Amino acid sequence: xxxxxxxxxxxxxxxxxxxxxxxxxxxxxxxxxxxxxxxxxxxxxxxxxxxxxxxxxxxxxxxxxxxxxxxxxxxxxxxxxxxxxxxxxxxxxxxxxxxxxxxxxxxxxxxxxxxxxxxxxxxxxxxxxxxxxxxxxxxxxxxxxxxxxxxxxxxxxxxxxxxxxxxxxxxxxxxxxxxxxxxxxxxxxxxxxxxxxxxxxxxxxxxxxxxxxxxxxxxxxxxxxxxxxxxxxxxxxxxxxxxxxxxxxxxx
Length: 252
Hints:
Layout: E1 18-22, E2 33-43, E3 57-68, E4 73-75, E5 78-82, H1 86-97, E6 110-115, E7 119-127, H2 132-145, H3 175-181, E8 188-196, E9 200-214, E10 226-235, H4 241-249
Parallel strand pairs: 1-3
Antiparallel strand pairs: 2-3, 2-8, 3-7, 4-7, 5-6, 7-10, 8-9, 9-10
């Protein structure tokens, strides 16, 4: 496949339309593997004004495979609030002066207000077996990028930066093309999927935290051959009960 012109800064990188990083050792059971796929759409052609045009739309797919060597965490939380019984509570204040109250257990009931997105906290291990760049350096760099904004093509020091992750107002990777048709400059969107062993698969997650720990092990060029990356993912939307069923059975 033809190498694409890079009109974005190195925060995206378009050396190849589709690349895979990490070590995918077939001798390691799939249960210990975490696969992160980032599919982005960006615009490589520009008009006379230096703005991207829809004819240059291309996708880039980056697949990263890492190993779990310890337990991972999943968590969510629902928010419950008091019932709107303001008038009843005021009446209770009056009657309590007389030594009794019309307030009962009903007034202590609460109603559901919201649920937080499902959160995953994983520690992934990357170690070099044959190629330090592909197996350690590049996957760590690509994971760090998932939290960072993007400088648009042709943008100077005062250009607005583009947000990472999916756009909340459209489905899939149509955001950039939709905005370009409206004459806007935004020209990047991405969707990241998360596969955890044979247990879970979520097709659209966001990355909120990435931290890297390099072990003092180096190759002949001085590059680290072993890294542990802590990543916090959240579902892009609040999952429903049926979403959880699908996410679990998708890997079953």
